[in-house]
TrEMBL record:
Residues 91-101 have a biased composition (Basic and acidic residues). It holds the Pfam family zf-MYST. The lineage of its organism: Eukaryota, Metazoa, Chordata, Craniata, Vertebrata. One of its GO terms (biological process) is double-strand break repair via homologous recombination. This is Histone acetyltransferase KAT5. InterPro entries: Acyl_CoA_acyltransferase, Chromo-like_dom_sf, Chromo/chromo_shadow_dom, HAT_MYST-type, MYST_HAT, Tudor-knot, WH-like_DNA-bd_sf, Zf-MYST. Its EC number is 2.3.1.48. One of its GO terms (molecular function) is chromatin binding. Belongs to the MYST (SAS/MOZ) family. It is an enzyme of class 2 (transferase). Residues 71-129, 144-175 are annotated as: Disordered. It is found in: Nucleus. The keyword Plastid does not apply.
Amino acid sequence: MADQSVDITEGCRLPVLRKNQENEDEWPLAEILSVKDISGKNLYYVHYIDFNKRLDEWVTPDRLDIKKLQFPKKEAKTPMKNGLPGSRPSSPERDVKRKAESVSLATQVTTATPVPSLPGSAEASQASVYPAMRDSSFSIKSRDEHEPLTSLTTNGTSSIQRHLIPPQPGRKRKSCGGTDEMVKMFQNNSPRCSTVYLLPGEDSQDSSDGIPSAPRMTGSLVSDRSHDDIVTRMKNIDCIELGRHRLKPWYFSPYPQELTSLPILYLCEFCLKYLKSLKCLQRHLTKCNLRHPPGNEIYRKGTISFFEIDGRKNKAYSQNLCLLAKCFLDHKTLYYDTDPFLFYVMTEYDSKGFHIVGYFSKEKESTEDYNVACILTLPPYQRRGYGKLLIEFSYELSKVEGKTGTPEKPLSDLGLLSYRSYWSQTILEILMDLKSENGERPQITINEISEITSVKKEDVISTLQYLNLINYYKGQYILTLSEDIVEGHERAMEKRHLRIDPKCLHFTPKDWSKRGKW
């Protein structure tokens, strides 16, 4: 219970009562970001330390543990480093944020092991798959006997590098099958257990030299530092009404200031125009002729459709879509310069029209092979398989374009979970479908997996590491598909009812490099 005689100001930290996922009371440490007075009673906007910003909220004084109040530390009057004259000192959290930007993508996107790069040869690593043998003399160490490979050091390098034996000067490393790195898969004692041998390469994640790279500040992540203040750290919209759904925003979105004080912000669910009242929305609907997103419908199966929207030709819709998306995407900082982007909006059809479910955007020209800039499933449709469907559709477009793709980094926490799940299911599906031909051992390469799925090679390898399938055995790296992994994959695929049908896709890629200014 807060003591009204104590002046709780912005920057103070103290435990705040909240409910966890099990609906149990907990008292995590929180920082006071703002204080407002309503009818003589204070409300406090709090950010729970080490929790995602979407959990930030306004709380009443009775939820504050005043006994453990920590006042903000006074800023030292020392010259600022790397600061401009007259600029204010950085807050501790902003300093942490700046430091985080200098950390490698691997540490910002996931705690999984960084991606080891494969050799740059034109040919891929070979993989030999051996038939299962119940009484095989080939013995495999249990998982417990293998040294762990997923520990991550502070500089973004994995413990894999510590296992590598550097080549001796003047001496070539012995390799199997010529210049290619070998990947051998053995079926061992069970048709559900297999082992892949991998010769290691360098660690990399979007960086060929292994040097940690900061998130790029182009594309959808172009940054405007002038808005990096306390205002953008707070949700400014209480509620959004979109069609038959009411949404509670997770993050700040730069809607016009005069709309942020409204209890409900109304959106037209077809053109996404924002309006200040229900009466204004009703008048708008009498004039709005849209019953689906503008642009070309390039996919339809059942009630699911995808529309391709050019950010230059349909600028108003694209900007409104970005404003809505920002309510649920923390890293998104691009709202108005939509010309260089294409937007793919997924809809669900009923008698009233095509209702937006989610979307992803991509750059018309990407030098980093990004096939997704931003991706979002709206909250009412989450946990229903639509997120994975959006991801699968993005890779189907990459297949038609004849490219491999990867999402723009950094991924949000929920985005990372969806991508990891999709990559895992897609890669395991390929490995488990391998069959012998003419009695010979089936073979596959990492590059072939990448070409079949259009998943970037680095993402293929990082997923295997994330699943903790790669182990070090007799001087080589092996990948073990245990019975638990196989059974878990089969259970997951049984629940995955929504899939993209390539036959229903009507898409012709454009060469934007020949189109001048898009």
